Amino acid sequence: MRVLTFLHSFEPGGVERIALRLVHRWRESGIDAPLFLGRTDGAMAEDVGAGLDFVSPRRRWPGIAHWETIWMVATLPRAVRTIRPDILFCAGNTYAFVAVMLKLVLGRDCPPIIAKISNNLDRADASWFYRVFYRIWLRIQGLAIDHFVGMEKPMRAEIVQCVGVSPSRVAIIPDPALSEAQILSLRAPVDDRPRGSGRRFVTIARLAPQKNLALMLRGFARGSAPEDTLTLFGDGPERASLEALAASLGLAGRVDFRGYVANPAGLLGGYDTLLLSSHYEGVPAVILEGLAANIGIVATDCSRSMAALLQQGALGTLVPVGDEAGFAAAIAAARPRLQDARRTLHQARRFTIEHGADHYIRVMRTVLRRHAEARAAASAAPLVTEQALPTL
């Protein structure tokens, strides 16, 4: 079986990081897993992408990073015709437009597409006008894409309801954001602070509007003690404005913008509490990493899966999306190392690459079998109809 994964680039992103890990794992297990990249730049080329061969368009046009989805729609069909995969893996919502366009361009020659739903589909953060058109777009995806993967159990009903497909076209595969080796390394706390120092808060996020990091900074300013610190790992278009906001809130000496780091999850053991303030998410990999590291968690209730991930509040504190006062109160109440280490370990181990990669392959084989059966039935249908016609 040949599984083609398509990504924009090696630019940092949770969807892309997990997709690259899956490609690595599939290849190690003997699966033919080619990788298509619209462009070759990005920090993850020397990180999780290291050692991966890939296919990319030979010609480049200036500024394709600003219209990379259109660039992929223009270049990927040719690669699919050349590589001739058995199945296509759409790694997240970001790539759904590319998947739908592939179906339109390639028609019956398009291999079956499996799409992972990587973000919340309700989008309660958006205006009603946006949500109307977004629901129409989701129904179009349901017509074009063969099978969907949700990352936690509550997502099955969400996909069925929002995309308009039958439950038989939805698989639930716990997002393979971790590995057993990573969990073991994260279990060892790193506590090198002097006695009497404040609490250490941390976040790992792309500095983009979806993450609502302005709310996090304002909540930290209201809820933290003078000796507490906040470290942000990640980069993105909002970095300059967020640094300016931190300064205006009087946090310049207590908030540290570290930028992109190759393995920020490996540093979580040196912190007390992980913060997540997003408008919307699917199953955030950073929450899984926080569970693996057994540190406290304060997060917005930004998807249907968050309550299940944090076991209805037993493994972390959930705050309504956009609730600055609630976020500040949760920060004020956070106490280091109070979570149940056995429960966080058990939960984290549900989301390993060892289990997830194999589960994906089983689902893909099932989809291929159903696809072959459907095509065989469609080919036989005209013969049956012709035989059934009465003789005049």
TrEMBL record:
Transmembrane segments: none annotated. Pfam families: Glyco_trans_1_4, Glyco_transf_4. This is Glycosyltransferase. Keywords: Transferase. The lineage of its organism: Bacteria, Pseudomonadati, Pseudomonadota, Alphaproteobacteria, Sphingomonadales. The keyword DNA damage does not apply. Residues 12-174 form the Glycosyltransferase subfamily 4-like N-terminal domain. GO terms for molecular function: glycosyltransferase activity.
